[in-house]
Amino acid sequence: MDTYIKNIFTDTGNVSQFTGRFFKEIFKPPFQINEFIRQCYAIGYKSLPLVGITGFIMGLVLTIQSRPTLVKFGAESWLPSMVSLSLIREVAPVITALICAGKIASGIGAELGSMKVTEQIDAMEVSAINPFRYLVVTRIMAATIMIPLLIIYADLVGILGGYIGYNIHGSMNIYRYFSDVFEHLEFIDIIPATIKTFFFGFFIGLIGCYKGFNAENGTESVGKAANSAVVTASLSIFIIDMLAVQITDLFF
Amino acid sequence: MTPATPVIEIKNVFKSFGDNDVLNGINITVNEGENLVILGRSGSGKSVTIKCLVGLVTADKGEIIVFGKDITQLRGDELNDIRTRIGFLFQNGALYDSMSVRQNLAFTLRHHTRGLSPEEIENRVMEALTNVGLEEAIDKMPSELSGGMRKRIGLARSLIIKPEIMLYDEPTSGLDSITSREITELMSTIQKKHKTTSIIITHDMASAKQTDARIMILKDGVINAEGSYEELEKSSDEWVRSFFI
Fold this sequence. Notes:
The complex is a heterodimer of chains A (252) and B (245).
Chain A: H1 2-25, H2 33-43, H3 48-72, H4 79-117, H5 120-126, H6 131-169, H7 174-183, H8 187-213, H9 220-251
Helix pairs in contact in A: 2-6, 3-4, 3-6, 4-6, 4-7, 4-8, 4-9, 6-8, 8-9
Chain B: E1 6-17, E2 20-31, E3 35-40, H1 46-53, E4 61-66, E5 69-70, H2 76-83, E6 86-89, H3 101-112, H4 118-131, H5 147-159, E7 165-169, H6 177-194, E8 197-201, H7 205-211, E9 214-219, E10 222-227, H8 229-233, H9 238-241
Parallel strand pairs in B: 3-8, 3-9, 6-7, 7-8
Antiparallel strand pairs in B: 1-2, 1-4, 4-5, 9-10
Helix pairs in contact in B: 3-4, 3-5, 4-5, 6-7
């Protein structure tokens, strides 16, 4: 038990140090623009199909599941706005971030972990290339920017899924559906939900990089780094979400 | 005759990992243009010694003077200035998996020498690959290369920056005897051609003999014996002789 608690404190200290180093390195030239763009492509563009499918299913299922209750209260016409609000404020950000934690944090953890154990990171260091700036800063930056964009994409596809879900049992044209959606949507729904997605992205990148960059020697540690990155990133998403909801509730 | 200039001086260096004392006051001097082979059993601290030389591992105590500067006192850009003059061949080549051979070499060169034109980079990449006899592998990915080819490409990547010191970490381990001989020949050719100072960490006695270098044997974290291959082969110390059987 003592060791467990000690490890938690040690890890927290190390992650804080790692985060501090990120903020120190991010402003130092040379900026690795090409690697940053490559990471944006890998994290953002290559995740579009997965995020699109899950976003669509979220909207569709949420609509189908909510419909009977709203029909019971004679509030079926509220369905588009209710589904879109739920998607934008909570469901799409959290589910998409969890999907990204599984795909991106584990991918980064495994990639950097394998680079560490095969001495590729050491090779960069002896070539006077700063591996932290090249590998870590670019990945965290790319995740911080691309994950909010993926979540906006999931919101839109989810709302479209909601439209299809609505039309399974009901009938509404697409213009009416979207005007219902946007009629009840306010900036107060969008802004806090969008701000928290940047934190989701930052922590997904940070934890993936931290776990991979600190993998011990041996191939077993690559699997451990990937696994641990997913678990820790997923947990951090729930914690950030809880804090974000509390803060939003306090101010709005 | 001018006295030889030492480019590497390791003075009384200690290094331990937890309770495991790896280096216990090691002393090594390597002169300009010299070839040095370090022998020793697995875990005797050979790799740690050369990793200390480039700051990959920080020594607990002692001085490591490279090109006249104590690298144990250097950080950041100052340390990187020294690193740009040193080539390091890792045990398995340590090629960047996500890059092709061309990108592996160009990436290192681009970061080493800023402002080179794409043509200059391409010429230097081709020159380095020609030196190791692997021009045809230029567009291959590291996963498509054999163990020997990976080491050659790793060597080309180290040489592309025209280093003054080359450090080889078990360059022939895991290779068949013919490929080992070819790699050793390549190292000797490079040393003669570019007049580089080299430290070779190896278990391979045939390779140690072929390089015709001064040999040091590491035991319990200190240099236990030193001399030419022929001298050590006839050593009165049975433990030293056991390497040559």
